[in-house]
Amino acid sequence: MRDSRGAPSVLDTSRAVSATSGIGWSAVLLLILCVLVFLQSTPVLGWLIPGG
After folding, report:
1. Closest Cα to residue 40, out of 50, 28, 48, 32?
2. Exposure string over 30-49, b if 16+ CB within 10 A, otherwise e
């Protein structure tokens, strides 16, 4: 979508930014999950695993 001057509208720009930030947040959440899985193999969070 373009405005009257032919420039991209704010809607297009915000859509691109939200897609990029969505990928960023996904990477952050994936990193947190990886850290949690690693900590489960240590005494810190080992109590979460039944029979561990």
Report:
1. 48
2. eeeeeeeeeeeeeeeeeeee
CA 27 to chain centre: 4
| CA gyration radius, the chain | 21
Q: Which pTM was predicted?
A: 0.56
Q: For residues 40 and 34, is the Cβ–Cβ distance under 8 A?
A: no
CA distance 41 to 52: 9
Kindly state the tokens that stand for 10. 């704010």
Express each pLDDT in 2-52 by its tens digit.
Answer: 566 766 655 566 666 666 788 999 999 999 999 999 999 999 999 988 886
With tokens 């009257």, the residue in question is: 4
